[in-house]
């Protein structure tokens, strides 16, 4: 097993949360790129729709950011979410899309 395969977050049943979230994001009309192999605290994926790009950190329920993730998270000024499952990701991305729909916060 390569070092990156061990980094894939899994739920209590051993199912890949990355796959669940990626499929949910695609089904909601967003694009997805895996980034979990980048390291250095960079989030696990990027979701994009129209001009909107959102970094997505994937965590199991109750799991916290590690030290590298916290450092990155606190320094990144762009849009980002922590997703715990596919529906959570879609809900949070939908909220951001409504809020930033035309590129101007609060203007739709």
- The CATH class, by name, is Alpha Beta
Largest sheet: 4 strands, mixed
Helix content: 25-40%
**How many helical elements?**
3
CATH architecture: 3-Layer(aba) Sandwich
Estimated share of beta-strand residues:
15-25%
End-to-end distance? 47 Å
CATH topology: Trna Endonuclease, Chain: A, domain 1
- What topology, given as strand order, has the largest sheet? 1-2-3-4
Which of globular, elongated, flat, extended, rod-shaped describes the shape?
Answer: globular
Quantity of strands, as a count: 4
Task: Produce the secondary structure layout.
Elements: H1 17-27, E1 31-34, E2 45-49, E3 52-58, H2 67-75, E4 80-83, H3 86-99
Parallel strand pairs: 3-4
Antiparallel strand pairs: 1-2, 2-3
Characterization of this structure:
By secondary structure, the chain is α+β, with helices and mostly antiparallel strands. The chain has a single domain, classed as Trna Endonuclease, Chain: A, domain 1, CATH 3.40.1350.10. 31% of the residues lie in helices and 19% in strands. Helix 1 (17-27) packs across helix 3. The longest helix is centred in the last third of the chain and has 14 residues, at 86-99.
């Amino acid at each position: 097993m390569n070092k990156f395969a061990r980094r894939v977050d899994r739920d209590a049943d051993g199912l890949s949360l990355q796959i669940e979230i990626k499929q949910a994001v695609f089904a909601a009309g967003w694009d997805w790129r895996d980034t979990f192999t980048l390291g250095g605290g960079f989030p696990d994926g990027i979701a994009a729709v129209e001009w909107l790009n959102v970094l997505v950190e994937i965590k199991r329920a109750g799991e916290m950011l590690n030290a590298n993730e916290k450092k990155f998270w606190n320094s990144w000024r762009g849009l980002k979410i922590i997703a715990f499952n596919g529906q959570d990701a879609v809900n949070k991305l939908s909220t951001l899309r409504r809020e930033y729909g035309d590129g101007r916060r609060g203007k739709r």
